[in-house]
Every structure is written in C-alpha cells, then in structure tokens.
Amino acid sequence: MAETLETPPEADSDAVWLATPFVQQLIKQMRAQDSHGHWDGKSDLQLLKPFILTPEERRAIPLLGDPDPETLWHLEIFYNAIAVAIERETGQMVSPMMKMHHEGFGRMVLLAGRLVVVNKQLRDVHRFGFPSLAKLAEAGGKFLDEAVAMIRTYPDVAQYGA
Amino acid sequence: MAETLETPPEADSDAVWLATPFVQQLIKQMRAQDSHGHWDGKSDLQLLKPFILTPEERRAIPLLGDPDPETLWHLEIFYNAIAVAIERETGQMVSPMMKMHHEGFGRMVLLAGRLVVVNKQLRDVHRFGFPSLAKLAEAGGKFLDEAVAMIRTYPDVAQYGA
After folding, report:
1. ipTM
2. Total beta-carbon pairs less than 8 A apart between chain A and chain B
3. B120 at the A interface (CB within 8 A)?
C-alpha cells in the first residue's frame, strides 16, 4: 500500500500535470499561436518550456527597463489560458485586461460580467516563469479554482446585464 | 410660478453643472495636471473646453490610425474624475484600467475591490468629447450614480478581501 503514496517517477508526474484543465488550455493556446506548424514536432512538455525557469535562469534575467516582449506575450498566454479554462468550467465569458505601469510592474485582471474573478498585481514581470511544470500547473489551477468559486458565489454579478 | 420651470440663462445653467460632484472632480484633475500654473488665469469653464466638441469639430477629426495622445489623456482624466468622485461618495478605493485594442477601439473599466463599477466599451476615441457642458456633466454623473448604486447593491464584492 505504501508505494502508492510515494512520489511517482517524473515522467508519470508530468503526465498527470499535463492532463489538468488549465495546462490543457495552455497547450492549446500555445499551439494556436503556431500558425505555420513550426512546433508540430514539439511535445507538449517542450512547448511549455518558456514558462519554466530554473532559479539560475531567473537570476540571470536583469530587472532593468521594460520586460522582454516575448515574456509579456507568455504572460498574456498564461492568463488567457486561465480565462478559457474558466469559460469551459462555468459557461461564463471571461476577458483579460492588463495594465503595465513601468519596468515590470502592473496588474492583470480577468473579468466575468461585472465580477473580477482573477486579480493579480504583477511585479518583476521580466522573470515571469515557474520553477517546474508542477508549480506552473498548480499556479494556473489555483487561479482557475478561485475564479470558478467566485462566479458560483456571486452569480448575479458575473451575469450582470447579460 | 411658471418662470422657475423655464430654462435658465446659459451662465446660470453652467454654474449648476460646474457645481456637480463629477464636474468638480474633473476640474480638480485638470488643475492637478497644471504643475507650472500656466492655467491659473483660466476659468473652470475654459479648463473644460477640451472635453467639449461641437458636431462640426467632431466631424472634422479623422478616424484614421491611433487617437491623438492628447485625446487619450483627456479620456483618462474623464474616467479618473469619475473614479475619485466614486471614492468620495462611497469611501471605497476605485482603480481605472484601460485597454486600447486598435485604432480608437477599446475598453475602460473602473474597479472597486472585485466589482466592475463602470464598464465602457470605447469606440471612435479620436472624437472623444461632448456637445456641451450639460452633456459632459450628465455623462459623468450617470457613470457616478450607477457605480455608487453597484457598490451599495454588492458591498461584499466591492469589499472582497479588504
């Protein structure tokens, strides 16, 4: 019995995270960007590589000036994937809005009707990324769960005017 | 008795609109931009001139390309003034977020906690302005009243996490 409680080998564990609703949407969003099919040969795991930064990789990115456009683009895809996953779960349309103030500081919200279902103050956007697939999946899954709970708690605000 | 129902002379009418909570905040926001005191000699009415466009002035502005930065700046001041007026009325902090998609289309929201208290789809932003002081005051006042009503209807959403 004890074996089932042990950490599974990494490949098995990856497969579990890759199958979660948020990560599935993130993979779809990434594949949707690839209009020329350059990434057809890439595995899902390879496709998510830009979202994963080791501590060393993080530290190597300077926090000067504005974040890299590529990094901002991945940040937007991350929150778009959460938005679409919320839509699939609740049937409620969700729109992202981002405001970058200066040098990697900003705010991201996901809106369902008149409800702010995700509210995230952004900082050090230059270093946007997660230490592992597990952490990436957990972060997205947590936003998704909280947003779904918000919509179920305040359905009249989420459906306001609809 | 009948006289009191007649439209007042224009100057009297202007004074009434200038005294409304939204227009008072709009004047304050404009004066706050004037750090060098260039506008000290301007009347409140003169200060609001950039928000007022005659139909001819509107039509003369081409809808090509991105809106003028000056126009975008006035648009932001208009919504900032609404935000501050809501704060004064409800004691609730309000933050604006704007997203310009392309060529004068976009969205502006004012957020109080987890509540979207003003939700405005923007179009033809190039021609942002109102035909008269009365229309300007009415537009801002309507947003203000609706936002205050939203906050009073959904206080737990507006104070979520606070």
Report:
1. 0.87
2. 37
3. no
